[in-house]
Amino acid sequence: MLLMDAHGVRDELRDMARRLGTVGYYVLLPNLYYRAGRDTIYGPTVSENGSAEHTRMRAVRTKMTIPPVMADVAAMLAFIDRQEAAKGGPVGAHGYCMSGPYALAAAARYPDRIAAAASFYGTWLVNDAEESPHLNLGKVKGELYIACAEHDELAPLPMVDELRGLFRRAGTAGEIELYPRVHHGFAFPQRWCYDKPAAERHWERLIALYRRRLG
Predict the structure, then answer these.
(1) Which of 118, 94, 125 lies closest to 29 in space, CA to CA?
(2) Buried b (16+ CB within 10 A) or exposed e, 63-96
(3) Average pLDDT in the 156-170 region?
(4) Looking at the whole model, is its pTM more than 0.90?
(5) Which of 45, 50, 164, 180 has the maximum number of C-beta atoms within 10 A of its C-beta?
(6) Smallest Cα–Cα separation from 92: which of 113, 112, 72?
(7) pLDDT surpasses 80 at 39
(8) What's the burial of 169, exposed, middle or buried (CB within 10 Å: 0-12/13-18/19+)?
(9) Could you tell me the pLDDT band of residue 132, with boundaries at 50, 70 and 90?
(10) Residue 23 has pLDDT above 80, yes or no
(11) Please, are residues 145 and 206 in contact by the beta-carbon 8 Å criterion?
């Protein structure tokens, strides 16, 4: 399950899904904004703060919480089980930006199905919400990989340090890695902050995680 960032489903993410598919994985790229309309997709100016598309996206994004997305994950797991092209057994989930917390929460909510989960520059992984991902690290049976950017207002370094301590105390399998000198969004080829070496490392780490845990 490739879980989208706040800018929503677009060709950039479809290309990323195809890349993962080329190494042998059955990939779902759900439109998590479907509750606002099944075809809720934003134009290229969604990345520009203050634009009409960005404002329209924020109106939907700010209403999203973890519980309904976990219901979506349950539906996706059931869907995967019905697909002949998908091998049965453990499933992986990784999310970018707003969906980093969703991927980690899914690993805690469905520990017997999701054997690998990754968050790439996930936003506010430690927060005051009852469903904050950091509260359920101990429920994860699989392996987690959490990648953070050195420059990220949505996941500041003090939060990353706090998360490291919580991760160790929970005894969760996996690691938290800080990518130096890069900004939030570094893995997206069409983003101003795209960093090819860091982006390629993110692919290497993700595929290695899935190879270990999914085969």
Answers:
(1) 94
(2) ebebeebbebbeebbeebeeeeeeeeebbbbbbb
(3) 96
(4) yes
(5) 164
(6) 113
(7) no
(8) exposed
(9) very high
(10) yes
(11) yes
16 vs 29: CA distance, rounded Å: 10
The SS3 call for residue 7 is coil
- Report which DSSP code applies to 122: -
Largest CA distance in the chain: 45
Contacts from 157-163 at CB under 8 Å and sequence distance 24+? Answer: 159/124, 159/125, 159/126, 162/126, 162/134, 163/125, 163/126, 163/134
Q: What is the arithmetic mean of pLDDT over 74-98?
A: 96
Angle at the Cα of 74 (from 72 to 10), degrees rounded to 5?
A: 40
Joined tokens for residue 65: 């919480």
Q: What is the 3-state secondary structure (H, E, C) of 20-77?
A: HHCCCCCCCCCCCCHHHCCCCCCCHHHHCCCCHHHHHHHHHHCCCCHHHHHHHHHHHH
